[in-house]
Amino acid sequence: MASTKSRNRKIPYTRRMQYEEEDDLDELDANDITISVPGSAKPPCPKPNGFDVIKDGNEDLSLSITSKLLKCCCGNRCWKITESYDKSKFPHPFRFFDLFATIGSILFFFYDVVTDVFLAHNYYSLKRWTEFGFTTAFIVFPMLVINLKSLRWYHLDYNREKGNGYTSCIVWFLRVIFTFPLMIGPVVRHIEYLYHGCKSRSASLKDTDRKNHYKQMLHEDTDAGMMRMLEAFLESAPQLVLQMYIILTETPDDGLLMSIIRPVSMVGSWIGVSWSLVSYHKALRASHNEEEIGLSLCGTIFYYIWRACEVGPRVVVLALFASQFQFYMLIAVAVHWAAMSIWVALQKPEFYKKTIDKIVFDIVIGYVLIFCFQNVQSGHTRYRAMLYYFVIYAENLAMLVAWQYITTQKSEWYYFAALGIIPGGIVIHIVVQLLYYKCCHPRSMDIVCCINPVQNYNCYQSVCHEIKTNEESKADTGAYNGQTFDV
Q1: Which domain range does residue 149 map to?
Q2: pTM score, two decimals?
Q3: How is it placed in the membrane, per its record (predicted)?
């Protein structure tokens, strides 16, 4: 559904405004969905070994598996199979992979939080008050922020629905209670996504009801992804740096239990940060309701490896540098944060109108750019990414060399491991990222390997401005409402 305004396909920080624009133009009637049989009849069984084919001709194995599982488990009586949908209206139906990934996100959320709490409790038992204080702070503060933010979103949704009776009072009560004070707002978002996803595939509902649940599923998926990513960068990433710093600087004998809990907690934080980027990226693409830009299962795997190899070495080198240059590490991070925030401001992202909101947005994205790349502007991404990764790789190698020169712990097990992880992570990250864009990107066939850096000053404009449209760049960026956006 075309919107009257152009939308950035990278980060919908305007949240649900884009959906509201679509709702104003969308008439919810029986014509929204094309059904191959009457509503009272049993939906047709899928063809033997038949796969759902997306617009670029590739076979979507996940949708096929979903249809076959539903046929075996429900006999197509409870769930509407994908072959019955008009994919122009339902380009991203709820799949088995979505169910599995969402349950995994919920489990990893609890895994990350519980292991961190257990770690803080052990620091308290060992009377290591400094470690206990910082570990606890990196648990409590992010939880307060993300759950209050989720509560704020519920307040906005409540005002939007006020008087319409879309949601019962008991549902609003449960949302508030589980978000604050129980502090599991991201889990509530994931559960609501599962609920609406299942309802959008229900064969017992009317067409208009399925359409409404489908839209709400996209809402909740984006909200849950934003919540998880916010939690990851406020809690998991700092926690990972902190625990690695403690390992490098402290050598007390804390016992076997502590030597197990801490690595388990660190692995959970690393997985949490990497997966939060994947789930948000996947939700963002689905939210645009266009089949050709959805993320496939293969693309999800490559994107996860890309992000894991980007975040992991960065966290390791920050902890290594901090172990030898405590105060100078804080200065280096602060300078990087300020520089990235200014860079974001120069790109002039148009997500907010108020000046204070723009400043806060620039600062928040600048903080995220301490750990990994995040695009905030339309146009070709490659030159912005190349500039960012050049800076990040230079910082990583410089901090590694400085640590290697100063450290006296060259006989420790982690010395040679660090010398291999940082450069090795850079190489793997570059290779996997290139493979993703060449083989797994939703529009990999349209991506031009080389762009003329002189024509229309593409390189300069891409670094700090939106690239103007031209015929040669449309194949790489994709057209939308008369403008081009990088996908």
Answers
A1: 92-257
A2: 0.75
A3: Multi-pass membrane protein
